[in-house]
């Protein structure tokens, strides 16, 4: 008998969900997709070979054959549909940011616990070999004791006025929840420490206060850490600097299925070399990992508490920021 695959339903026909089209999965059956527009659901389902299509997210959630829900909706809908899915006894995989704030994620966590379903936030980069290898190189001592880490992610979309939900404040837009949360998660991942905020800077759009770029400095254990995120430049990289050298990731946390590289520079011996990594579909790996957790009844490491800590860092950044 073939091994059971977890039946997933996808809420919405988001661009990011298209990364799953054409992949062959272990443990996962893409069983249903829902859209506000049935034509979009049908087109997506035909392309992705998904049998069930629904004209509303609620109808998909009501389907008793669906065991887990993937929620790549705009940020302001994560809370509502995570709660509805948990109450319908579906396991919940929600895109980052898991919620708009710590209070929402706490309530999502409670709903998942009381309905005995698993919760995971979709930080796809955690499934890419390149970033786990960067951490491993640090742990092996190659660049000596880690001292500074710098992270930047920005898309140059701020001048467009509209760019889907990202530039709409009422849809949970803004660079902090879109890109800043990656920085928060990445510092905690790479340093294995809970960062303390030193100083933060924030620039908001005049008309409506949407956050357009931000910078923050933290102390995470012994490490000085900075994150920069925004909608006014095109950047996606990180630096890890230790007592003996540095690691530079020029492609950083991009979700695209492209090869990746780490550039290592050991200053004392002036040795430079690179480690290369083949393209991986991190969204596929993330879904497969969550399905395995469901099958093994095991809590995912990207759980609600991890999401709460990231959101807390973002809240502290915004509340204490010098407005520039
Ligand atoms: N982990 C990553 O690497 C990564 C990368 C990009 C995005 N994300 C996250 O994934 C989520 C989706 O991002 P995306 O860029 O893929 O979004 P997108 O292409 O704009 O798709 C969002 C989907 O949500 C549905 N929707 C429901 N209400 C909506 C509204 N009022 N306005 C717009 N769309 C609405 C739409 O589906 P229907 O019309 O079919 O109902 C739409 O296709 C976000 O939470 C984002 O932060 C994560």
Fold topology:
Layout: E1 6-11, E2 28-34, H1 38-48, E3 52-54, H2 57-61, E4 68-71, H3 78-87, E5 91-95, H4 102-114, E6 119-122, H5 129-139, E7 146-154, H6 175-191, E8 196-204, E9 211-220, E10 223-230, E11 235-242, E12 245-249, E13 260-266, E14 271-277, H7 282-296, H8 304-319, E15 322-323
Helix pairs in contact: 3-4, 4-8, 6-8
Bound molecules: NADP nicotinamide-adenine-dinucleotide phosphate.
Structural notes for this entry:
By secondary structure, the protein is an alpha/beta fold. 30% of the residues lie in helices and 29% in strands. The strands form 2 sheets. A 9-stranded mixed β-sheet has the order 14-13-12-11-7-10-9-8-15. It has a 6-stranded parallel β-sheet with strand order 3-2-1-4-5-6, sandwiched between helices. Helix 3 links the parallel strand 4 and strand 5 (91-95). Helix 3 (78-87) packs parallel to helix 4 (102-114), helix 4 runs antiparallel to helix 8 and helix 6 crosses helix 8 (304-319). It binds NADP nicotinamide-adenine-dinucleotide phosphate. NADP nicotinamide-adenine-dinucleotide phosphate binds next to loops.
């Amino acid at each position: 008998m073939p091994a059971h695959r977890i039946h997933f339903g996808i809420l919405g026909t988001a661009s990011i969900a298209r990364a799953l089209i054409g992949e062959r999965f272990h443990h996962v059956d893409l069983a249903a997709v829902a859209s506000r527009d049935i034509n979009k659901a049908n087109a997506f389902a035909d392309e992705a070979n998904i049998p069930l299509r629904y004209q509303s997210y609620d109808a998909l959630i009501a389907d008793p054959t669906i065991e887990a829900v993937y929620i790549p909706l705009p940020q302001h809908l994560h809370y509502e549909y995570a709660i509805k899915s948990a109450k319908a006894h579906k396991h919940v995989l929600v895109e980052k940011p898991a919620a708009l704030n710590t209070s929402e994620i706490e309530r999502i966590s409670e709903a998942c616990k009381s309905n005995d379903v698993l919760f995971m936030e979709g930080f796809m980069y955690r499934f890419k070999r390149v970033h786990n290898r960067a951490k491993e190189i640090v742990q092996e001592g190659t660049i000596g004791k880690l001292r500074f880490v710098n992270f930047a992610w920005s898309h140059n979309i701020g001048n467009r006025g509209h760019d889907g939900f990202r530039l709409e404040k009422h849809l949970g837009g803004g660079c902090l929840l879109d890109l800043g949360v990656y920085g928060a998660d990445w510092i905690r991942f790479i340093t294995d420490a809970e960062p303390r905020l030193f100083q933060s800077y924030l620039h908001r759009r005049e008309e409506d206060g949407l956050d357009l770029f931000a910078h923050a400095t933290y102390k995470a254990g012994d490490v000085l850490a900075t994150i920069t995120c925004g909608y006014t430049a095109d950047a996606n990289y990180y630096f890890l600097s230790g007592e003996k050298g540095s690691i530079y990731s020029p492609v950083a946390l991009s979700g695209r299925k492209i090869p990746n590289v780490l550039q290592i520079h050991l200053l004392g011996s002036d040795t430079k070399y690179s480690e290369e990594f083949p393209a991986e579909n991190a969204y596929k790996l993330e879904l497969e990992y969550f399905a395995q957790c469901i099958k093994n009844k095991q809590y995912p490491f990207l759980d609600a508490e991890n999401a709460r800590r990231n959101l807390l860092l973002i809240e502290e950044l915004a509340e204490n920021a010098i407005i520039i």
